[in-house]
Structures are given as C-alpha cells and as structure tokens.
C-alpha cells in the first residue's frame, strides 16, 4: 500500500468539482506571497552556505602550503558555484546581488 499525501488545494478543488461546486480560477496555484517566502528562504540558505564556504576558504588560505593547493581550488570553485546559485535565486526575490560580490 502506498502512502501518498494529497495537495490540500488539489483535494479541495476535486471535492468542489465532485459536489457540483465551482472552483475559483486562482484556487489551484500557489499564492505569490508563498512563492516569494520560499524564494527568500532559499536565498537565505544560499547566503548561509556561502558564508560557510568563505570561512573554509579563509582557513585554507591562512594555513596555505603546497599540499593544500587542491582543496583551495575546490573551495574556490564551490564558492563561485554557490555565488552563481545565490544570484539566480535572488532574481526571483527582487534582491539585487552587486556584481562586485559575484566577481
């Protein structure tokens, strides 16, 4: 037996349609406020991850030796990738990431 969870708005729409009710045109989708809050939460998470990567990068640079060259490059690549992700997520939130931060 499968355990599935129905989307409450979909279940309500199906119940309304099954009982001869009329579904409002906007009842099936997410509210813009919910999507905005979700985008903001994703940006916040990305910012926290970026701060963690910056901390790791700082530790790697402060104790740099020839053996830490590969971890340094990996952390730099991870930081650039996360900054790119943060910028893309911020586009959906009306949050501007300055180009100085991205560069």
Automatic annotation (TrEMBL):
<feature type="compositionally biased region" description="Polar residues">
    <location>
        <begin position="1"/>
        <end position="10"/>
    </location>
</feature>
<keyword id="KW-0010">Activator</keyword>
<dbReference type="Pfam" id="PF09748">
    <property type="entry name" value="Med10"/>
</dbReference>
<keyword id="KW-0804">Transcription</keyword>
<protein>
    <recommendedName>
        <fullName>Mediator of RNA polymerase II transcription subunit 10</fullName>
    </recommendedName>
</protein>
<feature type="region of interest" description="Disordered">
    <location>
        <begin position="1"/>
        <end position="41"/>
    </location>
</feature>
<keyword id="KW-0805">Transcription regulation</keyword>
<dbReference type="GO" id="GO:0006357">
    <property type="term" value="P:regulation of transcription by RNA polymerase II"/>
</dbReference>
<dbReference type="GO" id="GO:0003712">
    <property type="term" value="F:transcription coregulator activity"/>
</dbReference>
<dbReference type="InterPro" id="IPR019145">
    <property type="entry name" value="Mediator_Med10"/>
</dbReference>
<comment type="function">
    <text>Component of the Mediator complex, a coactivator involved in the regulated transcription of nearly all RNA polymerase II-dependent genes. Mediator functions as a bridge to convey information from gene-specific regulatory proteins to the basal RNA polymerase II transcription machinery. Mediator is recruited to promoters by direct interactions with regulatory proteins and serves as a scaffold for the assembly of a functional preinitiation complex with RNA polymerase II and the general transcription factors.</text>
</comment>
<comment type="subunit">
    <text>Component of the Mediator complex.</text>
</comment>
<comment type="similarity">
    <text>Belongs to the Mediator complex subunit 10 family.</text>
</comment>
<keyword id="KW-0539">Nucleus</keyword>
<feature type="compositionally biased region" description="Gly residues">
    <location>
        <begin position="18"/>
        <end position="29"/>
    </location>
</feature>
<dbReference type="GO" id="GO:0016592">
    <property type="term" value="C:mediator complex"/>
</dbReference>
